[in-house]
Amino acid sequence: xxxxxxxxxxxxxxxxxxxxxxxxxxxxxxxxxxxxxxxxxxxxxxxxxxxxxxxxxxxxxxxxxxxxxxxxxxxxxxxxxxxxxxxxxxxxxxxxxxxxxxxxxxxxxxxxxxxxxxxxxxxxxxxxxxxxxxxxxxxxxxxxxxxxxxxxxxxxxxxxxxxxxxxxxxxxxxxxxxxxxxxxxxxxxxxxxxxxxxxxxxxxxxxxxxxxxxxxxxxxxxxxxxxxxxxxxxxxxxxxxxxxxxxxxxxxxxxxxxxxxxxxxxxxxxxxxxxxxxxxxxxxxxxxxxxxxxxxxxxxxxxxxxxxxxxxxxxxxxxxxxxxxxxxxxxxxxxxxxxxxxxxxxxxxxxxxxxxxxxxxxxxxxxxxxxxxxxxxxxxxxxxxxxxxxxxxxxxxxxxxxxxxxxxxxxxxxxxxxxxxxxxxxxxxxxxxxxxxxxxxxxxxxxxxxxxxxxxxxxxxxxxxxxxxxxxxxx
Length: 475
What we know:
The protein is mostly helical and 475 residues long. It has 2 domains: 6-189, no CATH class; 195-464, no CATH class. The protein contains 20 helices and 2 strands. A two-stranded antiparallel ribbon has the order 1-2. Helix 3 (48-67) crosses helix 6 (158-166). The protein is globular and about 65 Å long. The model has no long low-confidence stretch (mean pLDDT 90).
């Protein structure tokens, strides 16, 4: 079940809100836990067991870390156990096929699809990926680390901890919520009409970004991929496709984050922002301070800094950047293109830090902005196309290994011109600045009107159309 579905909008969410707000305050975490488990199990009920196991392991290890705090060696041992469990859980379900394919290939061994033991058939390949496992394993892993560091209090109520892990607004695709940011709200939070209204408004904005913008441009990217497969892709068509995918993934993911933040606010939680107009960046470094901020913050806090960060000289800093961005790429998917994508950005970040820094300082802002967009959108090509041979030929076409333009490109550009204009404007702060300049009274009147119109438009789109993917669902 995804937020931009009629089932969620008109069945699950209204019923959940009714049950939650009718429940006494002391039962609301239990309600949140149960409705979140139902939400998670909607598509794959069997994986509720994995979720419950993850909750049990990290809850008990948090208690053990607290119990043996005086003995640092034991406390660190239990932190290590928690981290290893989460990494093994993530590694088995997400990366087993990839590792088996590559490691067994090196050894010259062909791994069978399944193994029969005592009459029971156990699959060894193509194991379904539990939805959102990359997100909730990182959240639970950071919990025990934060308890050990004294950055967060230990949670002794397993219902409260379970509600944190399974909280449906951010369960599937983040933002990655660290326990320490919501620890106080899990124990005691207030729900007001104002916070409900602000959360509902934020949800409607995210829904419109996802349904009306991301879905509208996604079909163009698939058309350009089809042209590549048919051998008719041109340089102009290739760049049009990269722009389409770049806008699709931004409005798809930032829209989902907006919906998650809005839902969290409705239930009394304050999640950190996940995007800050990344396409306005004037460097690749700045882009990654604005894009998927919860993930970059997690890797910085729990991997880059423990590795030594930028302390210890240039060689160690380079090593740490490469490790972090290898992991960032690999986190996104079990495929070589994701690893290449992570290392691609690592190289650009290293170049900006050690080679281009003084040059960028003297470069006009518009040139820096264009340079950043060029690097980022080429990166989206690597990210989007898992077959490296296809990816290489696609990017080669963009850089001159194909005709420059075709009549079909002109037709597509005319068809999507208005959509591209809307996407470009929505990627800037123009709308926000115009909204803030309106008188308070005008905003009060327009807010419910615009929310109603966006819900009607999104509902009409979802009823009429069948194209409603969610790109980060697989991560």
